[in-house]
């Protein structure tokens, strides 16, 4: 007689409730987690491990199988009895915990906010990246013509599989991406009227010997090199003194010479004149001399990137694209301008900005140093919060407002070493309480499980003792 096959539902439940499958899932999670740890150690950055390992299709597949296994095991034990309570609570807790983690990933915000003292901010910067293109067809206003999130880390463009931005009859074709790259820039002469001037200067005295380029775009009034107690400025017109020691170079279009003005920090004029390439100016402060090594009335900046193997403080992400037969590189959080006959394009590639429903203004920032060292021991920000007034955010006292939590993360110093920029870590976790509930149920289920095991153990022990007494009495009978 042919054996009757079990219904499909029962066979599916039996497959996912199998102990061998559960062991395989646990081992798979352990292996993937180990790989993620290795990735993080090799590349020195959590984002690589997060996107390539923890948020990979492999991890999601294993977690989906884990969820199905948990559900199948509970169905397989139906109808539940009293001693199943701990087992069921723990399994439901794990499922709720996984749901909370998914809610955090899909709808949570984990970013940062940086501002100077006195500045107001209402945007949070997150790690997700956006590619945007703006265009001007009349030389006046710019309008957005393309905007899209991109993830070149998990979906890197290539010659065979490029990422294409269609701009009418033209297109930008992205063909290469470096997640870790070193930026290289070279200032070159240009024949285009729209390109601005550039100077390469050497600063020298008994304690200083440095060489720097200063380049000013044609539509920008000035660019400066800030040296702390002094600054060097490249401008298109005479500027008023700002109360610092400064050398102001004034470019002459299509001229091989520059005008210069030197101001003292009390806003008095020290000297002025004309300088050409190769000339040296004695500033009169701290025996500092400024030599003009190169002057380009029209200049352009050629930016390239070289690939790095891992994260360092000077590496960045960069993508390469071609437009009208010419290759360009664009780094993260940078802007590139392209010009054709009657159109100007602005390409922006950078971290996504999420707008908050309220602004924060940094009113004060303080850093406490470890005694006898230059290392920061504590740092805190005082921010003006709508409806709350001034609130102190320190390393151990975050701000909770509008569904967001603001933590004091770090700070940056200016050229003189004075702390000026406060950096807050901003977090919004809609799955937090779901994860708390899941964790509570897991703990409660474990307690209940051990309780019933203890009751069963005591009951068995009592039965054994009763049997022993009965046998003893039987043996004592005459």
Specify the overall morphology.
elongated
Tell me roughly what share of residues is in helical segments: 25-40%
Strand content: 35-45%
**Euclidean distance between termini CA atoms:** 59 Å
> Helix-strand pattern, N to C?
HHHHHEEEEEEEEEEEEEEEEEEEEEEEEH
Main sheet overview: 10 strands, antiparallel
Count of helix runs: 6
How many β-strand runs?
24
Care to describe what's here?
With 478 residues, the chain is α+β, with helices and mostly antiparallel strands. Among the domains are: 8-108 and 432-454, no CATH class; 109-122 and 354-428, no CATH class; 198-297. 27% of the residues lie in helices and 44% in strands. The protein has 6 helices and 24 strands. Strands 1, 2, 3, 18, 19, 20, 21, 22, 23 and 24 form a 10-stranded antiparallel β-sheet that branches. Strands 4, 5, 15, 16 and 17 form a 5-stranded antiparallel β-sheet that branches. Strands 8-9-10-11-12 form a 5-stranded mixed β-sheet, with no helix packed on it. β8 (222-226) and β9 (230-235) form a beta hairpin. It starts with 7 loop residues before the first helix and ends with a helix.
């Amino acid at each position: 007689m042919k054996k009757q096959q079990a219904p499909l539902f029962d066979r599916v439940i039996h497959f996912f409730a199998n102990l061998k499958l559960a062991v395989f899932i646990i081992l798979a999670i352990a292996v993937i987690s180990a790989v993620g740890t290795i990735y993080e150690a090799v590349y020195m950055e959590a984002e690589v491990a997060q996107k390539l390992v923890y948020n990979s299709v492999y991890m999601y597949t294993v977690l989906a199988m884990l969820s199905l296994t948990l559900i199948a095991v509970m169905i397989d034990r139906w109808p539940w009895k009293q001693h199943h309570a701990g087992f069921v609570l723990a399994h439901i807790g794990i499922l709720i915990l996984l749901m909370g983690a998914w809610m955090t990933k899909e709808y949570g915000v984990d970013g940062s906010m940086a501002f100077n003292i006195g500045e107001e901010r209402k945007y949070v910067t997150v790690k997700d990246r956006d590619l945007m293109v703006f265009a001007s067809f009349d030389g006046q206003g710019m309008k957005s013509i393309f905007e899209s999130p991109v993830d070149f880390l998990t979906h890197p463009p290539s010659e065979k599989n490029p990422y294409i931005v269609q701009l009418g009859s033209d297109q930008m074709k992205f063909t290469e991406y470096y997640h870790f790259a070193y930026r290289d820039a070279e200032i070159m002469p240009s024949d285009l009227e729209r390109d601005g001037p550039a100077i390469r200067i050497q600063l020298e005295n008994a304690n200083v010997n440095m060489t720097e380029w200063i380049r000013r775009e044609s539509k920008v009034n000035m660019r400066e090199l800030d040296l702390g107690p002094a600054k060097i400025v490249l401008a298109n017109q005479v500027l008023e003194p700002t109360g610092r020691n400064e050398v102001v170079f004034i470019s002459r279009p299509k001229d091989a010479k520059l005008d210069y003005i030197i101001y003292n920090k009390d806003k008095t004029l020290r000297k002025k004149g004309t300088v050409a390439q190769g000339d040296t100016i004695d500033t009169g402060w701290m025996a500092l001399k400024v030599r003009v090594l190169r002057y380009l009335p029209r200049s352009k900046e050629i930016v390239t990137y070289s690939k790095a193997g891992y994260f360092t403080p000077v590496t960045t992400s960069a993508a390469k694209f071609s437009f009208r037969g010419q290759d360009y590189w664009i780094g993260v959080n940078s802007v590139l301008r392209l010009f054709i006959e009657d159109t100007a394009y602005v390409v922006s590639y950078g971290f996504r900005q999420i707008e908050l429903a309220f602004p924060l203004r940094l009113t004060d920032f303080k850093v406490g140093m470890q005694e006898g060292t230059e290392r920061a021991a504590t740092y805190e920000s005082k921010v003006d919060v709508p409806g709350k007034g001034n609130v102190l955010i320190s390393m151990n006292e975050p701000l909770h407002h509008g569904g967001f939590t603001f933590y004091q993360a770090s700070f940056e110093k200016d050229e003189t070493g004075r702390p000026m920029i406060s950096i807050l870590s901003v977090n919004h976790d809609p799955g937090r309480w779901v994860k708390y509930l899941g964790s509570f149920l897991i703990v409660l289920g474990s307690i209940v499980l051990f309780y019933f095991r203890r009751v069963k153990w005591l009951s068995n022990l009592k039965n054994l003792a009763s049997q022993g007494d009965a046998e003893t009495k039987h043996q004592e009978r005459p």
